[in-house]
């Protein structure tokens, strides 16, 4: 008899181990309890015959978590599943064995190799130091030989590659960022040195090498050369490595991987805990990290409500709760970052519920890399120790976190990511080959829609051949939004994100969104079902447990042959079936192909553990089939297919009398719900489709029709769907979601014409009032998209009046007489009397968005590490009259315009007092500066002395 997983867990009592979400518990307490519970898994790594934890996948690294439990807090054997004295015996025996077997101590089993042995050496040495008084003299000597020997060996390499590590290399101090960052590799070199320095002081060249690798870990010459700051006695401008794109995004395995974006703080956490536990001062580079805050900005721009970064391009590292703790713990405790403290608190509040989900006790259960599990235990132990040794910052209030993190960033076509973090949602237009999508997380809920790796999300998954992107910023444009027009081999698609969290997509063909649907006790929303509501009704789809089973019925038909004919295979594995049952009949199976050991008869042999699978070479074939010959003509009414992971996305059931002529009797998927206009998902988010075709739900898949699709966060979808659709020229698509006018030109030609809109909103440009709304004059270049804010609304404005909105504070009306009320978006209203002729109205106190100042809101340098006496240069480009940049002695700042621009003029506005002697120079590459008309980087160099004025504003007008 087959029983599902939850039934099994209940029967065995494991479900009683499920904890309540510890939302108010301090992170340190949560980590201790998680380590106790995880010990049940750790004990599976114990090899009783050998007498120690196994070497495979560095399973012996569990000793660090054990050491924390044996030396800190109250030990709970009921949670751990092992008595404390037994755990101590296992741990000490393991430390003794692997200390002696390390290459650096004279053994031959492991060690010395920088990748990846030094990571586990760091864990191992730390465990030994926690249990130092329990170790015998020989084991202590071996541990000391490991720490000293690794530091000596790494320092002896200079900037050369480790010959033992093969292709895992930092490429000297040059580094690299395209395809695979060298940030992680340089971090490994630094962590190979940290235990030696912390526990044995400075050996020859140790500290110098540690600082060199640590400073260069996130080095970027164009930024570093803008500073005279010194870290650990060495100028930051001496850095040479280029390990990240110039938008401060890290790429690994050909994709944006936040897992690697966090590596700066993961390795720093491993290093810092050694210094803190040894009672030594932290090297300055661990607290003043060049460019670290710009890396952190990118992480905040992709943060979920669980306190972990989203993984829109990484297939196997989503929801790695145990691995994502340490970077946040380091920033919270060592860097005293209140934003990181809030993210860490959010992650800690979910950790125990996540851990209780099957497979129970695991900390990194959604990844295929076995070594992540002992790593997660070790890093949770380090996080606990960091909180003990250096208490964390006070978290920002939960409601402020995403408001403060809100930002739009266009990382460019090479990284392939255009992101928008808002208070209500996260969204990203992903254009990296293999990952194309409009990824959307309404309410930052990382367990609602699937967005990781190649998971489809709205856009066609085809390769993007052209990309035109705009990132709107509040400081420059008056609102945050993105707009993107994408070119494919067979057409165009458009995406937009709005400050409300709403997304808009112009789809050339139907799009798809997959929904997370599982039962995870204690995790918000994961109740074991999802409810979908639309104009046609409501349906609740229960979570599927185990492998998918399809039971299809159809009108009785006479057949001798019955087959499953594939239409859409599993994107990776094709088709594979455990059981293929045709009513109660028996028969002989055949198939289009099969893998050795997975022959067709395995699907009809009655054994639930055997299966048919298509040949490996045929996995991409759509029309693979599995057929059963019943031997004689039989009346059939149903089929039952139990699929393996390689379950068909779509297929047909066909019958035949002769095995040649086939008739379709059933199709999968059959929609659970088909509804016109709108669809609500679990009361959390929903879609409005501006299309005559319906939205359908098939299990955990939503299919959206071609046309304009709007995604809303917890909105009245019925009311929104009832709003009239804008009328546009043929190649243009438009949306007025949330009052913003979003426009897409899905063609290779410039378009001029009129867009007919309902309502009384006025947008930048020219429009004429009509009986039902406005006729907006459109001019849209080929293959572009844009978003316009509803700066004004009117009440009582008659038809036939022309309104020209110049900017966010000024509008000219023509075509009176008329009396009406004009209301600004910020709420200011005034009565307007329009006579014959024209009248220009200027709203008092309103800003004239958008501004054409090229410097406004741009990234400035120095950034993360400032020289003595210098304040943040960003104050000169933040648009505020209340802030200013104080250069400090001979201070210099650089503003990065993001791309080369023709510079028309430069305006410097100083505070009261005497401005310092200064020069303005320009650069295309960030390295060579001088006089120029085209530049990406603009530098202001001063001979500032105390008493001189500060720079309130650096303005750059385009040429």
From TrEMBL:
<feature type="signal peptide">
    <location>
        <begin position="1"/>
        <end position="24"/>
    </location>
</feature>
<protein>
    <submittedName>
        <fullName>F5/8 type C domain-containing protein</fullName>
    </submittedName>
</protein>
<dbReference type="InterPro" id="IPR006311">
    <property type="entry name" value="TAT_signal"/>
</dbReference>
<keyword id="KW-0732">Signal</keyword>
<dbReference type="InterPro" id="IPR000421">
    <property type="entry name" value="FA58C"/>
</dbReference>
<dbReference type="Pfam" id="PF00754">
    <property type="entry name" value="F5_F8_type_C"/>
</dbReference>
<feature type="region of interest" description="Disordered">
    <location>
        <begin position="154"/>
        <end position="173"/>
    </location>
</feature>
<feature type="domain" description="F5/8 type C">
    <location>
        <begin position="559"/>
        <end position="667"/>
    </location>
</feature>
<dbReference type="InterPro" id="IPR008979">
    <property type="entry name" value="Galactose-bd-like_sf"/>
</dbReference>
